[in-house]
Amino acid sequence: LMGIKVDVQSRLFRESRILCMPSFGDNELTLPSHLPAHLRSVSLPKEYPSKNKSERDKMLSLVACVRLHKLQLLNDRLLPLETNDMHERLLKVALTKLRKVETKLENTKPPIDDGACTAYIYPILQASTNFVDHDKVVGGEGRKLGLVTLDPLAEVGMPSLEFLHPNLGELQIKIGEKKTIHLTLTQWNECAQFFACLMSSRWGRRRTQSFFRYNGKFDGVIPTHLVSCLSEDHNIDWPRMKSVISDFSRDVEKRRACVKDLTLDKDLLRPRLWTPIYDPHVTYICYGPSPLSCNAPFPDEEYDTYSEYFEKKRLHPVSP
């Protein structure tokens, strides 16, 4: 009923997937959880309980579509809104409330050539019941992400966010106190490359080679900002960012060669973040080599061995 992207982490758990899908009962249809609670339940009209299951489900679907269309969540063809539909509806709402500005606001631009400019760092503070444990496991050493801006943010009304993460539990996120620094053009570009790596690692597409790129344009409405890596004392961690940029720039062949060169007694002594080739949008914490071979029994009865699982489920043949 609704065209909405599901987060990668949510797709890994059956309970999370169910919440993102409509669910049919005998005489009721429950819509996905991203809708308001009072809109999710659709009941069958009194004339239809005597119909068979297929007819009841069809009627429930039609009633749900009518409701979503009335709420302007479906177009006139009772299909999910496309990008153009959403763009037009947002403009209708936004433009009616915007006041005309006589003078165009100019956003601060990065330095030119060898010059430096004033910038502001806002640490992104994240906390949960086991967030610190994850940081210790992956060797984060208290690092965090930080917002780098050329214009200071508003001093009041700084937003905060709380939600349930499938791996980290109850997660609270807020913006920390401002720190003023000076950035050169080279440093600004390094922050931009790091930000592009973060965005591409989550939203990029390796198969189609679709990645985020820094375009260097500063004519937008939103003030110029980037995301950087901060050390525990809230300073920009330049060595870590350069390492991330270098690692992310490697192609698949270089990544495979790097894995083959690893030694079990030196390189895998501590846990590492691991992104498999067959599923590049999911990252695991690898605690070290397993004593099992690929020919070992698979815990799920659907597959006999790990080798069979990788070949049939992941379409990635491995040697037993």
Give the helix/strand class.
alpha+beta
Shape summary: globular
Low-pLDDT residue spans = none
How much strand?
15-25%
Give the count of helical stretches. 10
Number of DSSP strand runs: 11
User: N- to C-terminal separation?
Assistant: 43 Å
Question: How helix-rich are the residues, as a percent range?
Answer: 25-40%
Mean pLDDT equals 79
Order of helices and strands: HHEEHEHHEHEEEEHEHHEEH
> What profile does the largest beta sheet have?
6 strands, antiparallel
Concise synopsis of the structure shown:
This protein has 320 residues and is an alpha+beta fold. It has helices at 8-11, 14-19, 37-40, 53-70, 83-97, 131-137, 185-203, 238-248, 252-260, 306-312, and strands spanning 23-24, 28-30, 41-43, 116-127, 144-149, 160-165, 169-175, 179-184, 225-230, 272-274, 284-286.
What does this structure look like?
The relative contact order is 0.09. It is globular, with a radius of gyration of 25 Å. The chain contains 10 helices and 11 strands. With 320 residues, the chain is of the alpha+beta class.
Please outline the helices and strands:
Layout: H1 8-11, H2 14-19, E1 23-24, E2 28-30, H3 37-40, E3 41-43, H4 53-70, H5 83-97, E4 116-127, H6 131-137, E5 144-149, E6 160-165, E7 169-175, E8 179-184, H7 185-203, E9 225-230, H8 238-248, H9 252-260, E10 272-274, E11 284-286, H10 306-312
Antiparallel strand pairs: 1-2, 2-3, 4-5, 4-7, 4-8, 5-9, 6-7, 10-11
Helix pairs in contact: 7-8
